[in-house]
Predict the structure.
Amino acid sequence: MIPDPVVAGGAGATAGETIDDVAAAARACTVCAASLPLGPRPVFRISATARVLIVGQAPGTKVHASGIPWNDPSGDRLRDWLGIDRATFYDESRIAIVPMGLCYPGRLARGGDAPPRPECGRLWQGRLRAAMPAIRLTLMVGSHAILYHLGKGAMEERVRGFAAYLPSRFPLPHPSWRTRAWAARRPWFETEVIPALRAAFAAALSEQGDTT
């Protein structure tokens, strides 16, 4: 199994730190403030009982405004891939959401959202993940999350080779509007990846195998 850098490396929880401590520290973070056009507004959800962790890219302007992660068309597409409704998706007791960049990073000069601030992943991915011992499955959504977890490599190869990372991780493309055309040219995504994703997701949330 490929080591998971969220667990095995990076900044982990400090001694005696509770999940409330790390959440409060992340929400108060201003490390990138000078580089954020709309200012700091970390958007994430964690809980000690969450079974699934969704690691995406960074909030867009709609998510920055609402403070609700994946509260946009990309989120609708991700929920469709998972085969779940909004109530299930936002059940914080079962599903945690920690993007690679907690705050909206701004726009690129040529158009499109800027990549997540690199400081953010180094500061918060490991620390927030360490506060959630019940995570069974991590969804790596988009190239930034996949790169962080799996290192350099072609996203398409990782997505099509999803089985190599089960049962603990699942690589996915970012569910932006561009992905519809990408998926249409790759029928295996709909016929192979989506059914396996839904099965892995359901298994991670299942009560079977609990020892508590």
About this structure: The two ends are 26 Å apart (CA to CA). Confidence is low (pLDDT under 50) at residues 1-10. The longest helix spans residues 187-205.
